[in-house]
């Protein structure tokens, strides 16, 4: 598996900001990430990195819990480049995905889905019952990703995005503590694991056709 998910650290902020500027027209100031990272009780921020095969970092398989993707590892001393990032707030029984982005040239390789499912798993681990997020009404790829995971459009925030006045769909997950949701998640996670494992053998394999 050539990819690794790690918690975002203060040392990552500059690189995350560079990646973010290639993902969004209205990026956060880096001070916002620095602030978010100070409150790890309520906030969860992650990065996905390319992990060159020669680093030989052993798997750190999670001990129990709901982190079922076997390639979620910790601190790689080689610090290969960040390919994508994601973030979430947790409050009471709700989690709010605040951001998710993958470098344009790395899209279509399931990295966005890996980031997304890692955040959902963490929300479950933190006993959140629902996950919510906002998404531009024109953002077809993000909408498809969220709908794949059973998220539904529950409302509209008019002119939510200040750069172009675009509306946002407010989306909510299905209840995360119910068996059908957990079963569906397990199936999606298994398929994602198989897809990502294929990159191990062909890390420069074809990207999704436009
Ligand atoms: C949204 C984003 C994170 C998806 O990342 P990605 O790595 O390209 O997505 P994945 O390869 O993991 O695809 C996962 C699912 O997303 C959806 N998807 C991704 N790209 C898509 C596309 N071009 N067209 C339609 N659906 C797409 C599909 O449902 C896909 O599942 P499938 O392969 O089974 O069809 C990425 O496009 C991105 O960074 N966009 C810019 C930032 C952004 O808009 N973030 C969302 C803010 S709300």
Describe this structure in words.
The protein has 210 residues and is an alpha+beta fold. The protein has a single domain (3-201), classed as Aminopeptidase (3-Layer(aba) Sandwich), CATH 3.40.630.30. Helices cover 31% and strands 24% of the residues. The protein has 5 helices and 7 strands; from the N terminus they run βααβββαβαββα. It has helices at residues 13-21, 30-38, 111-125, 140-148, 179-201; strands spanning 3-7, 43-50, 82-91, 94-102, 130-136, 152-157, 168-172. The chain has a 7-stranded mixed β-sheet, sandwiched between helices. Strand 4 (94-102), helix 3 (111-125) and strand 5 (130-136) form a beta-alpha-beta unit. Helix 3 (111-125) packs antiparallel against helix 5 (179-201). Mean pLDDT is 87; it is low at 59-68 and 205-210. It binds coenzyme A. The site of coenzyme A (COA) has 20 residues, from strand 4, helix 3 and helix 4.
The CATH topology turns out to be Aminopeptidase
Based on Cα principal axes, name the global outline: globular
Secondary structure: number of strands: 7
What's the N-to-C terminus distance?
25 Å
Number of helices: 5
Helix content: 25-40%
Radius of gyration: 17 Å
List the helices and strands and how they pair.
Layout: E1 3-7, H1 13-21, H2 30-38, E2 43-50, E3 82-91, E4 94-102, H3 111-125, E5 130-136, H4 140-148, E6 152-157, E7 168-172, H5 179-201
Parallel strand pairs: 4-5
Antiparallel strand pairs: 1-2, 2-3, 3-4, 5-7, 6-7
Task: Produce a short descriptive summary.
The chain has 210 residues and is α+β, with helices and mostly antiparallel strands.
């Amino acid at each position: 598996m050539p990819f690794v998910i790690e918690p975002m650290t203060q040392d990552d902020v500059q690189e995350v900001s560079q990646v973010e500027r290639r993902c969004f027209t209205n990026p956060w100031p880096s001070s916002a990430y620095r602030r978010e990272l100070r409150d790890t009780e309520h906030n969860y921020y992650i990065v996905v990195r390319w992990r060159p095969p020669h680093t030989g970092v052993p798997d750190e398989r999670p001990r129990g819990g709901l982190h079922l993707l076997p390639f979620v590892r910790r601190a790689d001393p080689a610090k290969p480049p960040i390919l994508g990032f994601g973030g979430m707030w947790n409050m009471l029984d709700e989690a709010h995905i605040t951001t998710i982005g993958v470098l344009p040239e790395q899209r279509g390789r399931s990295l966005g889905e890996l980031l997304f499912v890692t955040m959902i798993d963490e929300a479950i681990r933190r006993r959140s019952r629902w996950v919510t997020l906002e998404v531009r009404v024109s953002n077809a790829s993000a909408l498809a990703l969220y709908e794949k995971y059973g998220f539904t459009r529950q409302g509209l925030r008019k002119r939510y995005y200040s750069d172009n006045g675009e509306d946002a769909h407010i989306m909510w997950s299905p209840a995360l503590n119910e068996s059908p949701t957990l079963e569906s998640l397990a199936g999606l996670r298994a398929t994602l694991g198989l897809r990502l494992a294929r990159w191990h053998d062909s890390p420069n394999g074809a990207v999704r056709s436009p």
